[in-house]
User: What shape does this take?
Amino acid sequence: QVQLVESGGGLVQPGGSLRLSCAVSGIIFRDNTMAWYRQAPGKQRELVARLTPGGTTNYADSVKGRFTISRDNAKSTVSLQMNSLKPEDTAVYYCNARQIWTKVDTWGRGTQVAVSA
Assistant: This one.
């Protein structure tokens, strides 16, 4: 059974930091591009950061220089380090795995991040 389980969300003040983690099981982790998406209330889900098996990264312009995506192929985990958080970063953050040949997407259930004073 394929599972992506996010953790690390919570409430943080503006300027603070959070680290999200996603534990992956049931797929060949190294054959998947891993990504974090987010969805704020009333908005569409958007890509935050992506990391290919070869190490190529992509970031949304709004998070460049503040967020860092990383993966541990030995542990089948992907993380998102979020620094200098802003209220507009408030959203549910979803972990995504995309198989590099079939393009099949697998999603986690999401973790809430709230940035507020």
Q: What stands out?
A: The mean pLDDT is 97.
